[in-house]
Specification:
The radius of gyration is 16 Å and the shape is elongated. About 15% of the residues lie in helices and about 40% in strands. The chain has one domain (about 25-80). The protein contains one helix and four strands, in the order ββαββ. A hairpin with a 5-residue loop joins strand 3 (about 55-65) and strand 4 (about 70-80). It has one helix at about 40-55, and strands at about 1-5, 20-30, 55-65, 70-80. It has about 80 residues and is α+β, with helices and mostly antiparallel strands. Strands 1-2-4-3 form a four-stranded antiparallel beta sheet, covered by helices on one side.
Length: about 80
């Protein structure tokens, strides 16, 4: 299962607009397997490519642990420049 955060409307710009501004998106991937730890690489890559085509850049990717160090979720954080 893949969960994407909602992309919220951009806030009104106040002050200096000459500096770069960024918008962020977080995606959570469930791990499969009896005890977790198995990532569906095809779904993972498809999501990365889909978001990349929409202008999102992957800036961080990490896993969350459950007992015995097994991975529970993979979290991917993306950003894109606000035009």
């Amino acid at each position: 299962m893949i969960y994407k955060t909602a992309v919220f409307p951009l806030p009104e710009v106040k002050g200096d607009v000459s500096m770069d501004r960024w918008q962020y998106q977080t995606v959570q991937f469930d791990m499969g397997g009896f005890l977790g730890g198995i990532l569906d690489l095809d779904a993972f890559q498809a999501t990365l490519n889909e978001l990349g085509a929409e202008g999102w850049e992957l800036v961080s990717c990490f896993d969350t642990n459950m007992s015995q160090g097994q991975s529970r979720f993979v979290i991917a954080v993306f950003k894109r420049k606000i035009q």
